[in-house]
Amino acid sequence: MVGAATMNPAMNKTDYRVHDPGATESERTYTMFLHLVGLLSMMEWITSIISLIVTWIMWAKRKDESPFLDDQGKEAMNFQLSLLLWAVIGVVTAGLGVGALILGFGIPILRVVGCVRGAIAANKGEYYRYPMTFRFIS
Question: In this structure, what DSSP letter does residue 11 have?
Fold first, then answer.
């Protein structure tokens, strides 16, 4: 990763993100929207696939322009794929009652919090890592 770890004195010593000082304003804005496009899937099930496709198109279009765009595009793709996997797990375990919690609360909360935090970090030029995400693309 390009950049240096920056630390806010008010933050815990283990809670920091790597910052890319070379990320341009255009790259930061683009990656912010790359993270926010995941919120499209909050509307209905079919948009889960659409947000995955849009995320892939946005990442594929500009991944060669900078390490920051490539890294954050991979991270957003991994998050969208992971949410899809979590949804499948929720459907499979729905009969146990666990699936209802995953589908009704877990995935929507994870999606909103993850996408918003990712967008905020990207806008600052910080490398963001989503929680509970499988790294399918490395």
Answer: S
CB-based contact 60:19 (threshold 8 Å): no
pLDDT at site 44:
67
The answer to whether the CB of 60 falls within 8 A of the CB of 75 is no
Nearest by Cα to 130 from 68, 73, 56, 79: 79
Q: What is the domain extent for residue 71?
A: 23-123
Dihedral sign (CA 109, 91, 54, 56)? positive
Q: CA 70, 71, 76, 81 torsion: positive or negative?
A: positive
- Asked, for residue 81, whether it belongs to a domain, the answer is yes
Please give the C-alpha separations between residue 20 and each of 68, 75, 80, 103, 136, in angstroms, as whole numbers: 7, 15, 23, 35, 23
Q: Is residue 6 part of a domain?
A: no
Distance CA 87, CA 100 (A): 10
pLDDT at 114: 96
pTM over 0.85: no
Give the count of domains, the chain: 1
Q: Is residue 4 part of a domain?
A: no
